[in-house]
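User: what does the whole thing look like in 3D?
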Amino acid sequence: MSLLEAHDLSVSFGGIKAVRDVSFTVEPGEVFSIIGPNGAGKTTIFNLVSRFYEADSGGMAFDGMDITGAPPHRIAELGIARTFQNTELFEHESVLTNLLIAHHVHRRTNLVTDLLFLPGARRQELDFRRRVEDVIDLLDLQSYREQPIGGLPYGARKMVEIARALCLEPKLLLLDEPSSGLNPEETEDLSFWIEDIVAELGITVAMVEHDMNLVATVSDRVMAMADGAELATGDPTEIQNHPDVLRAYLGD
Amino acid sequence: MRFVLKTNYDQDVKVFLHNGQRFWYGLLALAVLLAPLVLDRFYLGEFAYLYIWAIAGVGLMLLVGYTGLVSLGHAAFLAIGAYAHAWLLTQGVPFVLSVPLATAFCAIIGYIVGLPALRMTGIYLAIATLAFERIAAWVIEHWESVTGGHFGMRVPDPMVFGMSLDGPVPFYYLCLGILGLSLFAALNLLRSPTGRAFIAVRDSEVSAQSMGINLARTKCTAFALSAAFTGLAGTLFSHRIGYLAPDAFTVQTSIQLLLMVVVGGLGSLQGVVYGAIFLGLLPQAIAIGRDVLPQWIGEIPGLEPGIFGAILVVFLIFEPLGIHGRWVKVRLWFDQFPLYRRATYKRQRSYLRTERVR
Ligand SMILES: Nc1ncnc2c1ncn2[C@@H]1O[C@H](COP(=O)(O)OP(=O)(O)OP(=O)(O)O)[C@@H](O)[C@H]1O
Ligand SMILES: [Mg+2]
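Assistant: Here's the predicted 3D structure for the full assembly of 610 residues, as structure tokens:
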């Protein structure tokens, strides 16, 4: 069974059809990439899956459950975490707090236990703190741990955002252009980390990416889009040489 | 320069980071506990008043400083807490029950006021809460059988197990104790998921949702809690003024409350205390100003609210992190002397809203 299954998704804004009749699946344990020129509708697909946008038609199922009408916070609870194209962190807080916020989905306490900080709340905090540290170790963020987000360089923000998504301990991780704004070395590190995330943590990855090198290195399957429609889906080399895809990128 | 070596995750969960903090806050606690030995009746009363403001400030800080929702209607919660408490006392409900009941009542009203807030932010929310404050004031004026209408109502003495807490010293300790508990509860919130959810909603609603945070529930909870703390302050406030009348709670009260959290420093509990002190000293400063400045200035109508408004605007523009933020910077400067970077608190390139997510 596919982990994520989307069929015939369409959405339009005003007159623009941002996504038209797109269907795809993400299989457990793979890296699935979406490529396409600017404005192709890639981010919109992620926003549909996150349920920030309401699809005009079509449906989605995650892990066998219909999520077409689920509220956005439910998506995270079910096990889909994401990052944002231009980073969307909790600006005024430290890296640590950002990562701790992500543990919200695992919370076992309620308002009253929190207000009184009963032993259960304390135990939970220590538990969250330990799990956050595992992610910090995995992505080498030790030196940024206590720093406020506002003062971090862009590359670090990108990594913190991935770390925050990992703290949800998701089944599926959606990465929106993880390499944009990173230098070549950071991009190379990123490809190793993506492989680690899949192999060690057993998390399935779906990503939107412009860097074809990165896409070719880490992806199992690639979907190419243009003007809101799917052009082709297949393995990376196949897609890179697909005539429709070449036409979309190079113009007619 | 202080470097705290952490060897245990417990240290991140603790209220005080290091022994230095424990020492200074301990000293402060001792000072306020022993204050009745040296202060006279008048100053004890003024301090108790300051504590009441700070309790209300904790409530507003949770909403404005931590959840990022503005309210210009908090005078209403102060009033509802005060009237509900006074009415319960006149019905023979004992003080120790009446305070939590009035507080809970405010929490419920707060939750309901929070509902329309789900669709509003910024100036719209400010106007909506202002409207709520006006409605509450109207109800208080007209519901004569309960509130005494324009004539107001006398507030019975606070009695605990047959003992009156109305004297300056017991009342001082009552207010101090409740402020202590309020600060502790707020601290607890902020080091656990509920408080972090508030912060998440403040900094990015989109991200908060993708972290599994239910926006609607979080905002309503923030409103309810905020109203509860402010209502709790209201119950004490009723004893402080002894006689409740509608003109004790006006829009100006709401603005003063907002002024307190903004001047103190949004997003910090210390800021609440700084803000309360500032607010406590302000009338004195204005009175002195009246004496010194030419008479016609003192006679300008609406001078006081004007000054409040002006201070609010000046702080929002020049010191958005308030007194607490200034203090943190000064401390860092001393800590890092001579290495302080002027740019430490400058925001890095930030991205236009339109460039993000959607
Ligand atoms: N909230 C919105 N309101 C109006 N139009 C939108 C909205 N979101 C997306 N669009 C439009 O939908 C189209 C697809 O946008 P989308 O952001 O999905 O592109 P993309 O493939 O992610 O491009 P890029 O590579 O530049 O990130 C664009 O024409 C965009 O203007
Ligand atoms: Mg995009």
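In plain terms: Strands of chain A lie at 4-13, 16-26, 31-35, 57-62, 65-66, 80-82, 172-176, 204-208, 221-226, 229-234. Residues A 42-43, 85, 208 surround magnesium ion (ligand 2) (CB under 6 Å).
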